[in-house]
């Protein structure tokens, strides 16, 4: 059988295994997949708000263009159309409209939600309330009669402050406007959880389709933002990048290898280690992890550039000799380089970030497989063109150059201080900068209050958590009077503690007493006018007290879910602050209270989490470097030779780090992984230039091979650096620069030939 046919059959077998691996994969596009594991409750709150918080179900929308009246009309029509979508739970655009389920639940709960029962039911208060109801009847006529009969004390309107969305946006004819009055604003609550990307994508598509149907003359424009929109956009961009980068990278490699080898059978055989490595990475990742992030597949494309070095070394050293002989010649440095890189990838696998752990597992399995398959290629019976290696060329021997540049780079990094690091968590997610900017802009337009600071209450039980929230809200008017904030929203507004509910229940007078007060307060009402209200009061004793699930199926469920949640073995309640003007003063005031309430700065917590994660990752990679150094010393048998091998890649890593820290707004964990990749490839360069370059012909083979490796691997990562996903852009650019520097330093540190 011809070697080309053998290679083709092997590729077909590998492709079949790859198809099987893909059937086992469950793709994941969660925004928090590449975030570190939280180390304390505040950091856990940050991750929870990003990944699974109820805010992940809210879509913000803005309509611009046209005349104001036309825009207001279109907004009402759009809200009505969106409410008819099966993926939509609720739409708000300024008018406070209660759905039947929410109104019915509020009617049942009003007796337990409102304070000061004794004052509310005193004869004087009842008389004032009935006077207001007469005014309501005069204005509303028969439409208001049913509500007055069931709510003579006006309790439902008083609950409006709880129902009102947390926004200070301007209102025009019942529609929210931004501060400039140029856009109308809406909010849409999805029925789907944040991680249901496919369902959220269908919702976003439906929202846009409804708008397009109403916008006949295209004079209006729609902007959508919010967590569902960002998640859908990130998933689509991750998927598109994985496909486009793989196709472009594969085409680039095919072109380079065809021009370099000029043999169809060698190109097919060279693709085998790459394909086998990718399939092995897919299989291991699918078996070890429940879900695989889409960016892991995009990152798997980078494995093409790294694993391709192995067949390049093999075929490059097979000129003018048999392939099996070349395999024996390159096996030692090839396996040593692969083992060293494998140690580093295992360190990534141990990461607390699910996404990075997947990358480590994928790459470790892929590179190990690619190295072994490369050494098995002689079994295909390939014939490498027997062109004698050319003259290696005269490169200056400048071993001091990497040392000087590395020292300069280290000085730059030290002089930058903490600015050499980036603690911006948004850089660790695949979120598009424009989508993030739209989200920030619409939140500011909605004036939804401070999203950076939250008051957090944690205790061992639900009851004690709610009681602490109640105690705090009784004191918060002091903070308002001090000018530190303008308002708040608390979980205890919707779910009072059981103790408070029982006190309010007991404070309500019986039916006969309240009926007498109603009759005495306003004799113009019929004797049985308020029987529906009194019937509700009678039924109160038989109803259970409110609990965390009492608002499910209503428009208030999302709000309570966002403010109250289980927290390990205890409970956590949030208090949203509005109009916060002095966070430090409010935090100090809270610290002085006898309360478990603390003011949490989400940005500071996220930055601390990223910084701690970077330190942990640096420690892991440092340990990996020590292990790699020991491995090299043991296998090479010389500390001096080991140091000479490590010098070029380490110098390249330092110089690349200084360049990226200076030009890319500080280093992130992604840059560190990129430096690791570049160092691994650079280690291969150094191993070959040091161990297979003593004789002139061997030196020519080695230099040609590492030159082709630099072109292919560097080109692949340069293509990756063109991605519009910031995470992939950082990674690709870092590795491309590192590979180029590694190649230059390996060449300048290559000693002169010992033999002619």
How is the secondary structure organized here?
Blueprint: H1 3-24, E1 27-28, H2 41-51, E2 58-64, H3 68-83, E3 88-92, H4 100-113, H5 117-120, H6 123-140, H7 142-150, H8 155-158, H9 160-163, E4 170-172, E5 175-177, E6 183-190, H10 197-214, E7 221-225, H11 227-261, H12 264-288, E8 292-293, H13 294-300, H14 302-307, H15 309-316, H16 323-349, H17 354-375, H18 400-416, H19 433-446, E9 453-459, H20 462-481, E10 487-490, H21 491-494, H22 498-507, H23 511-521, H24 531-540, H25 557-563, E11 564-567, E12 570-578, H26 583-591, E13 598-601, H27 602-636, H28 639-663, H29 669-691, H30 696-720, H31 726-748
Parallel strand pairs: 1-8
Antiparallel strand pairs: 2-6, 2-7, 3-6, 4-5, 5-6, 9-12, 9-13, 10-12, 11-12
Structure, described:
There is one protein chain. The longest helix is centred in the first third of the chain and has 35 residues, at 227-261. The chain is elongated and about 115 Å long. 64% of the residues lie in helices and 8% in strands. The protein has a domain at 3-29 and 230-430 and 606-748. It contains 31 helices and 13 strands. Helix 10 (197-214) packs across helix 11, helix 12 (264-288) runs antiparallel to helix 15 and helix 12 runs antiparallel to helix 17 (354-375). The strands form 3 sheets. Strands 2, 3, 4, 5, 6 and 7 form a 6-stranded antiparallel beta sheet that branches. Strands 9, 10, 11, 12 and 13 form a 5-stranded antiparallel beta sheet that branches. It starts with a helix and ends in an 8-residue tail after the last helix. The model has no long low-confidence stretch (mean pLDDT 83). The protein is an alpha+beta fold and 756 residues long.
């Amino acid at each position: 059988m011809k070697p080309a046919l053998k290679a083709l059959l092997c590729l077909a077998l590998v492709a079949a295994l790859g198809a099987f691996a893909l059937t086992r994969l469950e793709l994941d596009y969660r925004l928090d997949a590449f975030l570190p594991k939280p180390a304390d409750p505040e950091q856990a709150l940050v991750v929870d708000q990003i990944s699974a918080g109820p805010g992940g179900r809210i879509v913000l929308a803005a309509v611009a263009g046209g005349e104001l009246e036309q825009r207001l009309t279109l907004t009402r029509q759009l809200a009505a159309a969106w409410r008819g979508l099966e993926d939509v739970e609720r739409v708000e655009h300024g008018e406070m409209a209660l759905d039947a389920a929410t109104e019915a639940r509020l009617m049942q709960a009003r007796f337990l939600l409102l304070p000061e029962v004794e004052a509310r039911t005193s004869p004087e208060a009842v008389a004032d309330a009935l006077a207001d109801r007469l005014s309501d009847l005069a204005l509303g006529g028969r439409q208001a009669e049913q509500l007055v009969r069931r709510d003579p004390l006006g309790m439902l309107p008083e609950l409006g402050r709880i129902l009102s969305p947390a926004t200070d946006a301007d209102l025009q004819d019942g529609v929210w406007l931004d501060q400039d009055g140029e856009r109308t604003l809406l909010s849409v609550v999805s029925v789907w959880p944040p991680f249901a990307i496919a369902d959220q994508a269908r919702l976003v598509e439906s929202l846009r389709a409804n708008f397009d149907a109403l916008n006949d003359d295209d004079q209006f424009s729609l902007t959508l933002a919010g967590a569902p929109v960002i998640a859908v956009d990130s998933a689509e961009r991750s998927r598109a990048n994985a496909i486009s980068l793989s196709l472009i990278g594969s085409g680039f490699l095919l072109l380079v290898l065809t021009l370099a080898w000029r043999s169809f059978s060698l190109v097919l055989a060279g693709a085998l280690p790459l394909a086998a490595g990718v399939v092995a990475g897919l299989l291991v990742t699918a078996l070890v992890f429940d879900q695989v992030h889409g960016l892991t597949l995009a990152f798997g494309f980078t494995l093409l550039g790294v694993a391709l070095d192995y067949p390049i070394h093999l075929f490059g050293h097979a000129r003018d000799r048999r392939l099996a002989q070349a395999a024996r010649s390159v096996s030692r440095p090839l396996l040593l380089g692969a083992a060293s890189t494998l140690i580093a990838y295992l360190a990534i696998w141990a990461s607390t970030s699910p996404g990075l752990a997947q990358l480590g597992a994928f790459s470790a399995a892929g590179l190990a497989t690619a190295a072994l398959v490369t050494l098995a290629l002689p079994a295909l019976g390939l014939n490498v063109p027997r062109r004698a290696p050319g003259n290696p060329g005269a490169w200056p021997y400048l071993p001091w150059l990497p040392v000087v540049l590395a020292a300069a780079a280290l000085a730059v990094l030290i002089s930058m201080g903490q600015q050499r690091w980036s603690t911006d968590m948004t850089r660790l997610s695949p979120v598009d900068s424009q989508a993030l900017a739209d989200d920030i802009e619409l939140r500011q337009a909605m004036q939804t209050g401070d999203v950076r600071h939250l008051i957090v209450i944690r205790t061992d039980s639900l009851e004690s958590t709610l009681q602490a929230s109640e105690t705090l809200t009784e004191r918060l008017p002091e903070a308002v009077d001090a000018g530190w904030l303008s308002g708040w929203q608390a979980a205890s507004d919707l779910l009072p503690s059981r103790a408070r509910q029982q006190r309010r229940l007991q404070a309500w007078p019986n039916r006969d007493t309240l009926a007498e007060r109603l009759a005495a307060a306003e004799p113009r009402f019929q004797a049985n006018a308020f029987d529906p209200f009194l019937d509700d009061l009678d039924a109160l004793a038989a109803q259970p007290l409110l609990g965390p699930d009492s608002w499910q199926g209503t428009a208030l469920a999302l709000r309570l879910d966002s403010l109250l949640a289980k927290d390990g073995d205890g409970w956590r309640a949030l208090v949203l602050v509005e109009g916060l003007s002095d966070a430090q003063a409010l935090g100090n005031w809270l610290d002085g209270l006898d309360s478990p309430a603390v003011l949490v700065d989400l940005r500071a917590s996220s930055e601390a989490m990223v910084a701690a994660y970077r330190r942990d990752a640096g420690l892991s990679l440092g340990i990996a470097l020590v292990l790699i150094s020991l491995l090299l010393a043991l296998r090479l048998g010389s500390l001096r030779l080991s140091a000479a091998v490590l010098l070029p890649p380490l110098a390249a890593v330092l110089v690349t780090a200084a360049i990226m820290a200076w030009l890319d707004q500080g280093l992130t964990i992604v840059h560190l992984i990129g430096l690791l990749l570049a160092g691994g490839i650079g280690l291969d360069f150094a191993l070959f230039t040091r161990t297979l370059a003593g004789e002139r012909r061997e030196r020519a083979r080695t230099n040609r091979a590492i030159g082709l490796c630099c072109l292919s691997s560097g080109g692949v990562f340069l293509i990756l650096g063109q991605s519009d996903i910031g995470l992939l852009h950082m990674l690709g650019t870092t590795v491309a620069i590192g590979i180029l520097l590694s190649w230059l330093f390996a060449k300048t540190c290559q000693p002169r030939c010992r033999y002619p």
